[in-house]
């Protein structure tokens, strides 16, 4: 049995996902069920809670760090789960995945350089690139049948222009849910090598991969000019607000450079909660994680079956990984404003607008399904009713 609701109900929080001001600003209403943030609704694994309870009981927070235990635990986890051999001495710790990306953009590109993203993609990528004074160069994914694929021809064309200095890869891909295969990644690496462009691989969703798909880390592809963000326990263990980011590279020169800039900005100062939470997650979280993965796979399967049978006008792309599902609602033949009204005023759902992810039309929305099945069922039933009653 997987526990889907916390045992301590009624404790207040300041979660962004149901923040009234934010919901009103984005959707014009706060009376919505939130599915817009990639954030699970479930209670975390009990070994992590226990580790943090002990820390609370300790009542002391001296400077403290133990990155060797963390890196060993993450390396062991990756060996067991993905047969990925990582050297515990080849990690650099930073405060989070996004700060890792921000740091790497600054360390390895110059102002005005192009950083390539494959759209639609996690919206913060563009923000991080542009706020660092770099140019976001897009190479849209191409849709073949029901699957999004890399567009190698366009990718090569962009790289051959000489303006792109870095590729920011989302692996697995948020929002379209693809888990890139080894062959697909190898082909990308071949082109990047040819033009000597660095690849940064954001692998925060690496563990959330469903039956039939297999995760391949950039770290296993022997590309010297690449850095892998081995994620953090944010998405796989539901620790979004206390996780760290871990950058990995077997290239010593790259690592030294990252370490130096991380230290220069004092980003290497850890936080005791994330330290103990991360160790507990990777050392003792396996049982919980497997239940979580099986549960969200069941939710995914239910959504796919429901959409195919009950709402065939809405196209749902099968997530091979991640807890996000990508919908194309063009088949409803509604104007963008009507679609927005239908979703937020009638179905009362806060889904992430597809336009956030770049170069996609307003008929696309993303839904986070790391939620109790009954809740998802009620919401999609409500969507079906709203569609049938809408003008
Ligand atoms: C692809 C991707 N990278 C990074 C993040 C955020 O990472 P962090 O909160 O650890 O900075 C997310 C969160 O949704 C994500 O989907």
UniProtKB/TrEMBL annotation:
Alphabetic keyword roster: Aminotransferase, Lyase, Pyridoxal phosphate, Transferase
EC number: 4.4.1.13
GO molecular function, one term: cysteine-S-conjugate beta-lyase activity
Every Aminotransferase class I/classII large domain range: 68-375
Enzyme class: lyase
Pfam families with a match to the protein in the record: Aminotran_1_2
Domain of life: Bacteria
Cofactor(s) this protein requires: pyridoxal 5'-phosphate
Family affiliation: Belongs to the class-II pyridoxal-phosphate-dependent aminotransferase family. MalY/PatB cystathionine beta-lyase subfamily.
Name this polypeptide is given: cysteine-S-conjugate beta-lyase
Organism: Agarivorans albus MKT 106
Native organism taxonomy: Bacteria, Pseudomonadati, Pseudomonadota, Gammaproteobacteria, Alteromonadales
